[in-house]
Design a protein that fits this description.
212 residues, alpha+beta, 4-stranded antiparallel beta sheet, 4 strands, 8% strand
Length: 212
């Protein structure tokens, strides 16, 4: 139906926003060369685009559905929005207190039955580091920007994983670790970080002040 297209577009934008993966203006479309490079003999060399994996498509679709389910009823109260994320008012109050008193908050997420990852809230410094990296590298494709953003966000939030602890000052160490992960593990962390960011966004969203 025609009405579904705008909703799907809004859902994808929401996913990118919560992941911190909104691409800079003008980079949402893959750039096309107006004059393809020429090989010797005058034959144009075809410019190939980066492939997007089915796993990435599936992950994005699942995140879109999660955002739709949570935001389907905008009239929900603050407590109801928290409840949909499995967070109670008392826990939300503790999260707010921790962030305001310590400057950050950590939360553990399970991966399978025996493993887990602990994320830490990111700061302004992490966002500036990401922006500087994008400005310096000037990636040509939106997919490349998304991958860079995902790695930066995971590295900036990674507090503990695989038996190793990462402090807020060990970004380079955490970033290097993300490059050695299998794609399946990396995508699992992306999904859990999106959940973590969603919880933080909701806890500190409109309604928090009134309730605390």
């Amino acid at each position: 139906m025609a009405s579904e297209a705008p909703r799907e577009s809004e859902g994808k934008q929401a996913v990118q926003k919560f992941l911190g993966m909104m691409t800079p203006a003008g980079m949402t479309q893959t750039p096309q060369a107006s004059h393809p490079p020429q090989e010797e003999g005058g034959n144009a060399k075809e410019v190939s685009e980066e492939p997007q994996t089915e796993m990435a498509d599936d992950l994005e679709q699942r995140l879109v559905e999660q955002i739709r389910n949570i935001d389907a009823a905008p009239e929900l109260s603050y407590e109801q929005r928290l409840s949909r994320l499995g967070v109670g008012l008392e826990e939300a109050a503790k999260i707010v207190d921790t962030i305001l008193s310590q400057g950050h908050y950590e939360r553990e997420f399970t991966i399978g039955r025996r493993h887990s990852v602990t994320f830490r809230t990111r700061g302004v410094e992490d966002q500036e580091r990401l922006q500087e990296s994008i400005e310096n590298q000037v990636p040509r494709y939106a997919l490349t920007v998304n991958e860079m953003t995902a790695r930066h966000n995971i590295a900036g939030s990674l507090a503990e994983f695989g038996g190793k602890r990462y402090t807020a000052d060990e970004f380079k160490k955490a970033y290097a670790a993300t490059g050695k992960m299998s794609l399946a593990v990396f995508n699992a962390l992306v999904e859990r970080l999106a959940r973590f960011d969603r919880i933080m966004y909701t806890v500190l969203s409109e309604g928090a002040v009134e309730n605390f």
